Amino acid sequence: MKDKLLSLALFLHHSKKYKTYKQFARDLLFDANNIYKRYFDLTIIFLVISSVLILIYEVKNPVPIWLDNYDIYFVSIIFAIEYILRLWVHNDLSEMIIKEYNDSKFLLKDFNLWRVIKTGLYAKMKYMLTPSAIVDLLAILPAYRPLRVLRVFILFRVFKLLRYTKSINQFVDVLVNKKFELLTLLFLLLFIVFTSGIAIYILEADKNPKIHTLFDGIYWAIVTISTVGYGDISPVTDVGRGISILIIVSGIAMISFVTSVIVSAFSERLNELKEYRIIEQINKNRSFLIICGYGQLSKMFFRQNRKHIEHYVIMDNDKERVEKAKKDGYVAIHENASSFETLSKFDSQYADITILCLTSSDVENIYITLNAKSISRKIKVIARVNDPETIDKFKHAGADEILMPNIVANTMIYTAITQPTMYKAIHAILTGKSIANIDEIHVHHSHGMVEKQIKELDFKSSKLLFIGIQREGEFIFNPPSDEQIQPYDILLVMGRKISLEYFKSMHEGDISVKK
Amino acid sequence: MSKNKIAIFGYGNHGKFIAQGLMTDGFDITIIESDKNFYKDAKADDFENVFLIDVTKDSELKNVVLPSFEQLVCVMDDEHLNVFLTLSLRSLFKDSYILSISDSLNVTKKLKMAGADKVIDMYEVSANKIYNILDRPVATRLLEGFVSNRDGITFKEMLIPEGSFLDGKMADDVNFSNYGVLLVGMIDEEMGHTFVFVTAGIEHKLDSGDTIVCIGSKEKLDMFYEEIKKRKSSL
Q1: Residues 104-133 of A with CB under 8 A from B
Q2: A452-475 pLDDT, tens per residue?
Q3: Contact B215 A467 (CB under 8 A)
């Protein structure tokens, strides 16, 4: 038996298939980036809702047999499978056995299989006792037909939804934060309920025809303290009424107390929750911008009537500026971009992030640059530099692009003086006026243009001006017409926007022809 | 390019850079400052025409700024002074071309109201640059080179002289690539000295007196310029 288990564990340990399956199950259940998880979640949510709707409908109407079967068997089986999967991926029993086996071989001690299995099963047991696992289990129970009472447990299926709704988790989170206050109040409440419940039972059990048991007393106490007051049980003696007065007054105090605790807990965390939402939303995009600092430059950046920037978030550690940005209608959060925790909340593995360091302080900008680069080299940083002497430091810190408002403005003025006509032209190009757009055509490896000669592309008839090729970091100006286009070339072309777009679509279409 | 007379007000952050660039290119410039330290800087940097005056006084301005100045560049470090100066210059010199720098949207508005012909907003141009870096990094680098890099690819305005071999030809018929340059566009005098891109899709006939704009490396541009000066007959 022992040997058989060990060889099974070894087999699983070496089986690639087993591991991929397990990993797939794990991703499906937990990995938010898994493409199938979305569908899986939606299926579960649909099953829960449909099953509850059937339960409600069933109360007054006969249900067709197939619907009943669907509810009892199909839904329950899916839930059972889910439950088993969760239990399965919770820990790796086979891995634990192998590890223990290797360890004991190394230490030359006896291999104790049962102890490992015990710890492994214990961990699974512990998981089974967590609230979400219990809910999962209860959701399967209605499948047991002989006990019709268990039908009520279908309502537990609703609790399963909790796992799939983040806002409720956050709500719970907030409450957990106020655990101490809430628990204190709860104990106080229980104390009052029990003492007054017992008191009314002792005082009125023989005088009041409505009070027979201690449960009646406690039920009355809860109905009264919550200020609900059904009135089905009411005190008949003066002492009983005295207790009622006390209990009502303390009940009002208690309710307002609890409400204020919860409200204050929420208002404390509200901003945080909102910002968490914003970050989560933006993390869903393949590429986005993080703009640090909402000053003159950032305002200007947004005010340019250029193509709409879709995915961005403004970050500033000054509360007033964040408020200003929000008032101006932008997505902004009050966070310190120079802190490691803040920037690591963004998913730099999945998305292409570009950070614009636009604060007015060079020190701050350098710090943000370093911070971003320390999280991932993949993050692109465009930094604003005010003092020309700090340029080297920015380059050293790894900034991809450096922007000096002073120098940019100076160059523009200089051009405006020396070449006034061309200034207009360059300004037109830089601001992307429709008549003269300079654009880049990025050639990917299966692009229709690959291996074509420049003369074959016939830019002229498309009313485009071909300027050059950027290849492996070098710019080739006006290459000879028999030059071949290579994969990953960037072609620089000038022309009207419509010509550019037409040209691009025309040549991208070639892929299918080639294939 | 005509070497017109230019007055630069301010030798601070911006003035210094601009003045030095213009001096290298051989422009006739005059620097006017109201700050003693900047005045000394300018003197130390070997500028000949440097004046220290109170720019808020019209009488003093009239003494140093002559109507013969074609461009007046207001780049004082103090934005209030800059607006005031633009206003005084406009009232004094109706025909001069006034260029001012601004560092915020509000100042830009004020400068325009004060009568500046062109206002360059420091943050606006920077903001545009960010867009360009994000959108088309290669193109941006090339354009940057046009204006700041003297050795790399740049552009040149060329006047087609009388009797040039280009005279009377259609722009499409001339193979500019053979000369290592590209025709970007031309300056249309009929349409009020505006720049027309070749890609606008209009058939261009080149005539003497037209100004064409080409891009290419500096030496190729110079060689091409020499080429078009040659007469038809000499080809």
Answers
A1: none
A2: 787 777 777 777 778 888 887 777
A3: yes
Q: Which CATH class is domain A179-269?
A: mainly alpha
Interface probe for A, chosen from B24, B123, B210 (most Cβ of A below 10 Å), is B123
Is the confidence metric ipTM above 0.90 for this complex?
no
Terminal CA-CA length for chain A: 58
Q: Which fold has domain B152-234?
A: Alpha-Beta Plaits (3.30.70)
Q: Has residue A421 got a pLDDT over 70?
A: no
Please say whether the beta carbons of B206 and B170 come within 8 A: yes
CATH architecture label of B5-126: 3-Layer(aba) Sandwich (3.40)
Query: Other C-beta atoms within 10 Å of A2: how many?
Result: 10
Query: Per-domain residue ranges for chain B?
Result: 5-126, 152-234
For residue A430, which phi and psi values (nearest 5 degrees)? -65, -35
- Asked if the model's pLDDT at residue A221 lies above 90, the reply is yes
Q: Which residue has the higher pLDDT, A2 or A201?
A: A201
Taking only the tens place, the pLDDT of each residue in A391-400 is: 888 888 888 8
Q: How many CB atoms lie within 10 A of CB B156?
A: 20
Sheet holding B118-121, edge to edge: B50-52, B28-33, B5-9, B71-74, B97-102, B118-121
- State pLDDT tens for residues B125-159: 888 788 877 777 777 777 666 665 555 677 777 77
* CATH class of the domain defined by A286-408: alpha beta
Task: Select the residue of A384, A463, A467 nearest B201 (Cβ to Cβ).
Answer: A463
Q: What top-level class would CATH report for the domain A434-514? A: alpha beta
